[in-house]
Amino acid sequence: MFPAPQSGDLPMADRKLQSKMKAVLQNLEALRTEHQTMRLNFSAGIISDPEKEEIVNRNFQNIDLGIGEVRLIITLMSHLQNIDVERQKLRLQVKRLCQENTWLRDEVQTSQKFLLKSELLVVQLEEEKKQLEFAASVKKYDDFLEGEDIREKLNGDPTLELFPEDEPSDRRLSKLSPTPSINFADYEVSARLRTIHNLAIHYASQGKYEVAVPLCKQALEDLEREHGHEHPDVATMLNILALVYRDQGNYKEATRLMSEALEIRVRCLGECHPSVAATLNNLAVLYGKNGRYKDAEPLCKRALAIRENVLGGDHPDVAKQLNNLALLCQNQGKHGEVEVYSRKALDIFEMQLGVDDPNVTKTKCNLAACCLKLRKYKEAEELLKEVLLKAHDKEFAEAHDGEQNGETVDNATYGKTGAWHETAPVYSPTVKTVLKHLATLCHKQGKFEAADRLKHDTFRSKNEILDVLGQA
Predict the structure, then answer these.
(1) Among 268, 270, 323, 467, which residue's beta carbon has the most beta carbons within 10 A?
(2) For residue 297, what is the enclosing H or E element?
């Protein structure tokens, strides 16, 4: 694109100066030769004049010095000329790279636009394909996890760890609740909606809300045109769109759509349908995210009543709903109610899922925090110790804690912090939560030194933590 400069491409002034210096060098070398001849004559005695001989020797030395200086100047000029040539080459390379960079940016922008158009086209084609496949056939129904499925597949939200979503997935439940005059008793979500749901989840999990939202809106328009606004499919689509908005952080729009979905499901499916319970729970989660705990509590209680009626009082889904209710009460300072709900949820989890289930661990942590608020310190300590032992022995069985097999483990094994629960093969925040609660417990009991150690120290094993508690 740009011709590279050559060493011969020098300015006229530089070439003239270089030529003059070469001519000077040649003249000096000629003078040197003449003086060398004269010195030889003096040495041979052909000429005998000490004064002249001294002058010739001095001139000879000056000529030698001059020749050296001229050669140095010529060398420096050549070096500077080479540097100038290299600098010009680099400038040309920079210009070329800038042009190539601009071209590449244009190419990337064009490719991004093309990719977005292609993705939208693929989504539209997939939706049209599904519509054509099921337009002439009897609708088939499939299981659909509205809340839990989306929560697990989308990016994690720390709030959900404290206020988890959960919705029933048992197909038999959809046939057990009373319905209004329009017969939706056997209603289940269609395979078409399930496909839209999966696509929305796929794009939302990648943060491509500019694709997920239009996809849901287009499907919603098609369903309203096909069935009218008052139809369970429309409510399901509103629910999906609300959950996408929720994960986008648009809680206001998500709450509005979820409320609308709830109204439609109540009118179409009845007050006691499991889908109504699922929507109530989702709406309660949205209220909880906005700090509207008093508004969320009655919704959670309604969902709990529906699930107890349909599933029975000892079902794990009932326990999860009890946990949600306990957490709402906890945020309102109703610690007595928190204890009741948490104990009931813990009993169900232990009976139905076993003592090693993660839900049991979470519920014990919540119950321990509640006991701290109620000043039931002994019970809180026992619960936290149980969680600590389970976390160490089950989740971190492969960690080098310095106890297993009687081995002595070097501190370097534990990384920079030395905390076994942070350097274990499976990291979990459970132990950090337990340490925080134990520190609070010791502080409330006046054991300030133990509280400070539990809060700031790093421990190589469970026994070190238990020793701190024993010495307190």
Answers:
(1) 323
(2) helix 293-311
Q: Using DSSP, state whether 141 is helix, strand or coil.
A: strand
Residue 449 in tokens:
């030194």
CB of 284 within 8 A of CB of 303?
A: yes
* Alpha carbon separation from 214 to 20, 44, 205, 323, 325 (Å, rounded): 79, 109, 15, 35, 34
What is the three-class DSSP state of 418? coil
394 DSSP assignment: I
| pTM, rounded to two decimals | 0.56
Name residues whose C-beta falls within 8 Å of residue 417's C-beta, 6 or more positions apart in sequence. 423, 458
Work out the angle between the directed axes of helices 232-248 and 191-205 (0-180°, nearest 10): 10
Q: Which residues pair with 190 in a beta bridge?
A: 141
Query: Tokens representing 396?
Result: 């971190």
How far from chain centre, in Å, is Cα 10? 57
Backbone angles phi, psi at 178, to 5 degrees: -65, 155
Q: Hey, what long-range contacts does 404-407 have (CB within 8 A, 24 or more apart)?
A: none
Label residue 46 exposed, middle or buried (CB < 10 Å: 0-12, 13-18, 19+): exposed
- Residues 257, 292, 326, CA angle at the centre, nearest 5°? 110
Q: Which element (helix H / strand E) includes 147?
A: helix 147-153
Tell me the per-residue pLDDT of 286-312, one tens digit each, with 9 for 90 and over: 888 888 888 999 999 999 999 999 888
Is the pLDDT assigned to residue 410 strictly greater than 50?
no
DSSP 290: T
Torsion of CA 108, 112, 118, 121, to 10 degrees: -160
Question: What residues contact residue 314 under an 8 Å CB cut-off, 6+ apart?
Answer: 348, 351, 352
Calpha distance 318→245 (Å, rounded): 27
Q: Identify the pLDDT of residue 103.
A: 92
CA distance 45 to 419: 98
Q: Token pair for residue 403? A: 């106890």
Surface-to-core class of residue 345, CB atoms within 10 Å of its CB (0-12 exposed, 13-18 middle, 19+ buried): buried
Q: What is the CA radius of gyration of the chain?
A: 42
